[in-house]
Each structure stands twice: as structure tokens, then as C-alpha cells.
């Protein structure tokens, strides 16, 4: 398993959890972003800078991931493509996207986008809580432990 991180919008605290897990489990991590992302010195962690543009980082990840890889993203369309490619998708709040829940998440995303485009003010995502961070770390550990068995 390789971990791919949709790094442009990934919170720093989540990246730090990923870096620690990668080093501890010797798992390859690739951060993909359209800006320079600093990473700690490690043979297991690298960063790829892609050109700016709509979905360029997402497309890079989809083109390079393999079945059973893990993608860390809050981007629901990227998560759906990841699942369609037989890989795993985990959001920074610790929710594992699955075949069972991704279509509902896409529908809700599209509905909210329709509301926003018609002028309805909607709240953005709530701030990342300590519980979200713990949930993410626990889910990441579970996934990595399954692979290492």
C-alpha cells in the first residue's frame, strides 16, 4: 500500500499524523499539490508539485494510484474515483469512504453546490476538532495494521 495525499487542502496537523505513521510503519507517502509542500527528511515521504489548474492534483493521483493504495482527501469526487479504481479513500476527519456511502456523499455535495450557486448561503465545514484528529489517526492505524499483517 502506498498513501497518496491530496495535499493542497490537507490540514497540517493531519499531514504530521501521516508523516509519523509512514515512518513508524515504513509506508511510502506521496503528497501531491500545486504548491511546494515541505516534508520531513525521510526515505518514505516525498512531495510532487503539479501545475496549477482545476483537478490537476486529483488527476495525477488517480493516474498513478494502484489497487489497495490509500488516498487521503476531503474531495468527494476524488474519493469516488479512488473507490472506482479499487483503492481506499479516507478523509481528514477519519471517515472511510466506501462503495456504500460515496454515492450519498456525492449527491449531498452536488445538492449543496446547487444551493450555493443559486445564492443560498451555506456554512463551510466545521473546524477540525481534537476528536476528528484522533478519529483520523485511529482509522489510519487500523488501515496500516491490516496491510502489514
UniProtKB/TrEMBL annotation:
Domain of life: Bacteria
One Pfam family this sequence matches: DUF188
InterPro entries per the UniProt record, alphabetical: UPF0178
Sequence similarity: Belongs to the UPF0178 family.
Name of the molecule in the record: UPF0178 protein EOE65_02005
